[in-house]
């Protein structure tokens, strides 16, 4: 147990942003961090997360502001220019918003297997510290969650954060309701601290990254009145790849009997069908594969397939792009919708 | 301010300083602070209905109740109107009453607010402010609270979680003061304050606080038969105006009482709230008026501008009703120009309520020469940061210097648009022929007079394009979408759908994108059925008058969650009794999932939800699940059915019948059990198994009521597949606790209820007239 000092260390104003997907525990991590800072380290702190749709699988940002004990925190706005960014899911790095605003002297922590050096991190200032930790694997091995690992990695990276206090807060959070999770979380946290790898030579940008706040596409002079959307089905331009957390269904055509059961249960309408045969021969509708742009990896199709034509596979980088069967082909400027 | 801090055994710090009462440091959001205050006040009754972002107040209190931390009787209303009624009734009993709401919920309750104040019944209402629909937006502005300004309530503004905590004690004391006796709103910014955790101090010794609050005393109570009184008489002229004078006098009395209460409370806490918060206003030439969190952000900029020698300050009221005219006049007396930021517009009035009232207040002072600028800002949750505040100060400084206001009224932060920029185009319009593929064949059975349906095989159905496009934002494995898919497979031809508020609506229409390929309407879930019935009749009227160009045959379908069938039951029953030609499909996922899984009336007894939490003191939902299929059967509409995703043929047959009846005879109602992996707390791919267990336990029987005749379409008893309810309950995280011995009473009660309803249904199935 750490003893709180009346007035914690002088840390100035520290802004930390967690970039995550609903369900990975970024919100809880932020809360634990801020609680540890305020209740155990004698700092002043604030914590909040971005809210929109709170569905599992949608993007979540969680923010922690920390400052000296006697400095008031007045702003409630999101932290556009953080000192530290922790990325909970590698796929998020492909969106420049994820690292936007990172200060030139800042710290970036991302989760990925050893050896993975995402291109997207090149933009980060060379003066930043870039740290990799395989939070997903460690979490799986320790039967914990990525947030425990990443909190450990964060404490390992930032001197202002007393790891013992943060770990104590993590423990206190779980003790009451999931006491059995505590040793797992502790190991995950400690491994996060120990296994963070400082990545040299990847970041080669200059200066602070520009801040970004996505603005609207339509404005008051261009949007149809009343908020109507006269563009049926334009969610097809969404890419939901980040909703998958580690696994994807893979289609093996040999075993498929084209029964259509997978199509009946798939919540994301991404099972692709095609019509085979022409002329006087009766048309046969065949299952052709999956459009991974929309697949959220729920495995309901796998669970339902009577023949084992669909299997659950660990998703490796590039796999979805290779196996994807687009559901909408652009033909002659229009879209062929089955 | 000097404070001493000691570390307690659990590592939290206790701060003693400033106030006379012992306090401790904590980290809480505004909603948590409100819940903590409610616990510490010890209200008697809370009537509530969940709405983002205020729901967490009830959720936190639910958890605390389960852990034995308070005794507040928590009553989930059927909607905010019902919740307000619950609160009104409870307050007439003379105890302390609490409610919490936001946005549309406040508006739905609004009708009851003047009743509460007009009959002088104090209570406390937390309003976590949120913009008002439509279009629906869950985030912060003050447009909701502006609607409440004419309701006769005291309105306290809480700028941060600490103020939320403190203001709640003040609210009780002010409202119950014999000269006031008015209900009180505590308003704080949705999300910005409601969900942001901040350091704060809470009482660590409640005795002096309770002594200060004293017992709840009211001059009249509805619970004392030895002193009978009539509440709410029929009062026309010449009396009503006098009643309103009394109300006015009560507000005037509050002007005197509020500073007293704030001072007493400040003595205990060390935190002093003036009626008007004035920041560095001593010699300010230019000022900004803002309410709640935005005012705090602006203070940062004041410090920076003052360091540059700019004479600026911030004025923000801690009390909005009674409106602090005098305080505004005083604060702005020597200010050359003030910019009033309104987080809500009164369209057509060139100002939101705050700036209109500030203007009115200044106008009373003949010497006042302050220029007033209005800016509408931060609507629908648009962030307000220091650059926005700088902009406001610059405008005010410019006006102060030039003694002219370039633009009196404007929106801050709006975007005109770029004609070259458009949201992505979606999919081509579906042709009727594509939708009319003959996937279902419906025939009247000559012998029975009922319908027979034949279906094409599933693989053939995939040829029919879905009316919802992929790319929607539901959780992985969500059960709603297979249900919609199966329904749309069976529906032939063109449809118009109306979705009531809920997950299906929110995840398919995130602006500026829509997953819907057919015409889609959203109306709030208290009124969708009425809305669609109006459209149905307009359709028939235009056809009758031959005014509908290229008239096509349309099927009208309303899709609602089970929660929509709580709050919207009244209009839905009205629609049933009028028997409009349309379909209603309820996807029953047993909770208000869109707002974070609170109990609905469809939630079975004992189930854990975020407002029926389970803890050391037990918990789980207290009453049995609503049977909306039977309720609609009792309206004698032509067709009612239940279905589940795991029986797609059965479901699609029923949808085909429903469409047939909706076109020819009138309203049809379908209730479909719909899985929610996230909130049922199970694997994303567990749906089919868990639904099967729900069906085989007879919890959710599959049946139809056609022209009043009940037919069970899947009988687990007859098939030898009946299983005990515990086989179903053990597979969901939200119900596993029910198998523990201490919850045996809930489990037995649920099992008995399931069995009773099943036997009743079987009797109806067997009886030729039922
Ligand atoms: C008048 C009003 N009260 C409350 C809400 C908040 N609200 C939106 S959706 C919802 C729950 C809907 O539950 P249900 O109909 O079961 O659909 P689900 O979310 O489960 O899909 C609630 C409480 C609101 N939008 N309007
Ligand atoms: S469920 Fe299996 S066998 Fe049937 S169509 Fe899908 S992949 Fe093929
Ligand atoms: S895992 Fe299967 S069922 Fe789930 S979204 Fe992907 S394709 Fe659809
Ligand atoms: S919360 Fe439940 S019902 Fe709502 S989208 Fe997620 S899984 Fe579906
Ligand atoms: Mg529901």
Briefly characterize the structure:
The complex is a heterodimer of chains A (338) and B (770). Chain A is an alpha/beta fold and 338 residues long.
Going by helix content, strand content and strand pairing, the class of chain B is alpha/beta
Most extensive interface, chain pair and sizes? A-B, 93 and 100 residues
**Largest β-sheet summary of chain A:** 7 strands, mixed
Q: Which oligomeric state applies?
A: heterodimer
Distance between the amino and carboxyl termini of chain B: 76 Å
CATH architecture of the largest domain in chain A: 3-Layer(aba) Sandwich
Describe this structure in words.
- The complex is a heterodimer of chains A (338) and B (770).
- With 338 residues, chain A is α/β, with parallel strands linked by helices.
- Chain A has 2 domains: 13-198, Pyruvate-ferredoxin oxidoreductase, PFOR, domain III (Pyruvate-ferredoxin Oxidoreductase, domain 3, 3-Layer(aba) Sandwich); 235-323, Alpha-Beta Plaits (2-Layer Sandwich).
- Chain A has helices spanning 26-40, 135-142, 146-157, 163-175, 182-195, 261-265, 300-304, 319-323, and strands at residues 14-21, 44-49, 59-67, 84-87, 107-111, 129-133, 197-198, 247-251, 271-276, 284-290, 310-314, 329-331, 334-336.
- A 7-stranded mixed β-sheet of chain A has the order 2-3-1-4-5-6-7, covered by helices on one side. Chain A has a two-stranded antiparallel sheet with strand order 8-11.
- Chain A starts with 13 loop residues before the first strand and ends with a strand.
- By secondary structure, chain B is α/β, with parallel strands linked by helices.
- In chain B, the strands form 6 sheets. In chain B, strands 21-20-22-23-27-26-28-29 form an 8-stranded mixed β-sheet, with helices on both faces. Chain B has a 7-stranded mixed β-sheet with strand order 5-4-6-7-9-8-14, with helices on both faces.
- The longest helix of chain B has 30 residues, at 240-269.
- Chains A and B meet through helix 1, strand 2, helix 6, strand 9 and helix 7 of A and strand 1, strand 3, strand 10, helix 10 and helix 15 of B.
- Strand 2 (44-49) of chain A pairs antiparallel with strand 10 (197-203) of chain B.
- Bound molecules: thiamine diphosphate, iron/sulfur cluster (3 copies) and magnesium ion.
């Amino acid at each position: 147990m750490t003893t709180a000092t009346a007035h914690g260390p002088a840390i100035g104003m520290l802004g930390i942003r967690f970039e995550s997907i609903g369900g990975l525990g970024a919100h809880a991590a932020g809360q634990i961090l801020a609680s540890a800072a305020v209740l155990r380290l004698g700092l002043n702190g604030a914590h909040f997360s971005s809210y929109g749709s709170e569905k599992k699988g949608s993007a979540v940002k969680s923010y922690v502001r920390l400052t000296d004990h006697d400095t008031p925190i007045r702003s409630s706005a999101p932290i556009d220019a953080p000192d530290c960014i922790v990325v909970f899911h590698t796929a998020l790095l492909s969106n420049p918003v994820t690292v936007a605003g990172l200060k030139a002297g800042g710290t970036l922590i991302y989760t990925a297997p050893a050896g993975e050096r995402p291109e997207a991190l090149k933009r980060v200032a060379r003066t930043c510290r870039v740290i990799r930790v395989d939070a997903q694997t460690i979490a799986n091995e320790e039967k914990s969650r990525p947030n425990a690992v990443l909190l450990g990695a964060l404490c390992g990276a930032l001197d202002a954060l007393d790891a013992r206090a943060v770990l104590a807060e993590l423990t206190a959070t779980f003790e009451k309701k999931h006491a059995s999770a505590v040793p797992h979380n502790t190991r995950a946290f400690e491994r996060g601290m120990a296994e963070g790898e400082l990545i040299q030579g990847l970041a080669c940008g200059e200066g602070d990254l520009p801040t970004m706040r996505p603005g609207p596409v339509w404005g008051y002079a261009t949007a149809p009145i009343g908020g109507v959307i006269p563009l049926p089905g334009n969610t097809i331009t969404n890419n939901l790849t980040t909703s998958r957390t580690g696994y994807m269904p893979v289609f093996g055509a040999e075993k498929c009997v084209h029964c259509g059961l997978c199509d009946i249960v798939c919540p994301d309408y991404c099972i692709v069908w095609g019509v085979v045969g022409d002329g006087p021969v009766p048309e046969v509708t065949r299952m052709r594969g999956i459009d991974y742009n929309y697949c959220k990896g729920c495995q309901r199709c796998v669970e339902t397939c009577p023949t084992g034509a669909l299997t659950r596979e660990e998703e490796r980088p590039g796999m979805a792009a290779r196996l994807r069967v687009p559901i909408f082909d652009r033909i002659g400027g229009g879209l062929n919708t089955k | 301010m000097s404070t001493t801090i000691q570390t307690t055994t659990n590592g939290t710090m206790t701060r003693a300083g400033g106030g006379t009462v012992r306090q401790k440091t904590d980290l809480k959001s505004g909603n948590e602070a409100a819940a903590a205050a409610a616990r510490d006040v010890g209200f008697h009754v809370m009537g509530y209905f969940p709405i983002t972002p205020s729901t967490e107040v009830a959720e936190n209190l639910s958890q605390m109740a389960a852990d034995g931390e308070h005794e507040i009787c928590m009553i989930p209303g059927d909607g905010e109107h019902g919740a307000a009624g619950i609160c009104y009734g409870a307050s007439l009993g003379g105890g302390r009453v609490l409610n919490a709401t936001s946005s549309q919920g406040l508006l739905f309750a609004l009708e009851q607010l003047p009743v509460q104040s007009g009959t002088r019944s104090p209570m406390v209402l937390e309003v976590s402010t949120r913009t008002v629909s439509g279009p629906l937006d869950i985030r912060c502005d003050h447009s909701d609270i502006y609607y409440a300004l004419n309701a006769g309530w005291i309105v306290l503004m809480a700028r941060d979680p600490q103020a939320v905590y403190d203001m709640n004690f003040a609210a009780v004391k002010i409202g119950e003061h014999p000269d006031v006796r008015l209900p009180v709103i505590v308003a704080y910014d949705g999300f910005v304050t409601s969900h942001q955790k901040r350091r704060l101090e809470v009482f660590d010794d409640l005795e002096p606080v309770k002594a200060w609050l004293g017992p709840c005393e009211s001059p009249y109570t509805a619970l004392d038969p030895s002193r009978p009184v009539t509440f709410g008489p029929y009062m026309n002229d010449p009396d009503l105006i006098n009643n309103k004078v009394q109300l006015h006098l009560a507000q005037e009395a509050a002007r005197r009482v509020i500073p007293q209460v704030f001072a007493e409370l400040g003595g205990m806490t060390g935190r002093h709230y003036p009626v008007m918060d004035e920041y560095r206003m001593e010699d300010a030439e230019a000022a900004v008026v803002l309410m709640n969190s935005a005012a705090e952000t602006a203070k940062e900029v004041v410090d920076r501008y003052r360091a540059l020698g700019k004479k600026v300050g911030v004025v923000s009221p801690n009390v909005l009703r009674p409106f602090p005219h005098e305080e505004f006049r005083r604060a702005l007396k020597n200010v050359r120009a003030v910019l009033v930021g309104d987080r809500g517009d009164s369209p057509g009035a060139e100002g939101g309520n705050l700036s209109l009232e500030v203007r009115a207040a200044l106008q009373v002072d003949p010497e006042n020469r302050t220029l007033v600028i209005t800016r509408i800002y931060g609507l629908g949750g648009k962030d307000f940061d220091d650059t926005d505040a700088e902009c406001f100060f610059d405008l005010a400084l410019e006006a102060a210097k030039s003694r002219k206001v370039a633009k009196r009224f404007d929106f801050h932060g709006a975007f005109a648009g770029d004609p070259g920029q458009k949201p992505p185009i979606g999919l081509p319009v579906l042709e009727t022929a594509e939708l009319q593929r003959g996937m279902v064949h419906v025939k009247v059975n000559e012998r029975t007079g009922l319908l027979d349906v034949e279906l094409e095989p599933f693989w053939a159905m995939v040829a029919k394009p879905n009316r919802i496009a992929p790319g929607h934002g539901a959780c992985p494995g969500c059960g709603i979408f297979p249900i919609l898919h199966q329904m749309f497979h069976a529906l032939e031809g063109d449809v118009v759908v109306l979705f009531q508020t809920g997950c299906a609506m929110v995840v398919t229409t995130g602006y500026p994108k829509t997953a819907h390929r057919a015409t889609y309407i959203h109306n709030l879930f208290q009124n969708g059925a009425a809305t669609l019935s109006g459209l149905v009749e307009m359709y028939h009227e235009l056809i009758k008058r031959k005014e509908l160009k290229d008239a096509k045959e349309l099927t009208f379908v309303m899709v609602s969650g089970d929660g929509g069938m709580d709050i919207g039951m009244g209009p839905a029953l009205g629609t049933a009794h009028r028997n409009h030609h349309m379909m209603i499909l309820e996807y029953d996922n047993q909770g208000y999932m869109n707002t974070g899984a609170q109990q609905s009336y469809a939630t079975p007894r004992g189930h854990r939800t975020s407002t029926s939490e389970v803890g050391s003191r037990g918990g789980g939902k207290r009453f049995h699940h609503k049977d909306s299929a039977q309720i609609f059967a009792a309206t004698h509409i032509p067709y009612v059915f239940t279905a589940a995703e795991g029986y797609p043929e059965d479901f699609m047959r029923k949808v085909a019948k429903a469409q047939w009846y909706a076109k020819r005879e009138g309203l049809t109602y379908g209730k479909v059990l719909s899985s929610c992996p996230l909130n049922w707390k199970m694997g994303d791919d567990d749906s089919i198994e868990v639904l099967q267990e729900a069906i085989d336990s007879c919890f959710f029987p599959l049946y139809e009521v056609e022209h009043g005749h009940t037919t069970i379409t899947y009988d687990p008893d007859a098939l030898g597949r009946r299983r005990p309810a515990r086989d179903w309950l053990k597979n969901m995280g939200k119900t596993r606790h029910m198998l523990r011995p201490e919850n045996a009473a809930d489990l037995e009660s649920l099992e008995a209820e399931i069995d009773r309803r099943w036997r009743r249904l079987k009797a109806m199935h067997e009886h030729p007239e039922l």
